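User: Please predict the structure of the protein below. I'd like the answer in structure-token form so I can feed it into my own downstream comparison script.

Assistant: Understood. Taking the following sequence of 74 residues as input:
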Amino acid sequence: MGRHPGPAGRRIQQPDPGHRLIAERWSEDVSEDVARELQRRCDLQMTDVPSALAAFVDRCIGDRRQLSLRLVSR
């Protein structure tokens, strides 16, 4: 945050111009993390993502999906 002199010599803090961009990116990053976790859990259970969440997962991770492989011992 930048500081600027205010009335009577007091300093007033003003938000950094990049602060808004950071806040917007943060919410996108969280959505992608949540979508990846949903996909990971469904992969572990060997089920499809529920239809109510499929559009969200596709929008957030789309083709960047990482496949989880499960090792089965015999």
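That's the full token string. Residues 19-62 form one domain.
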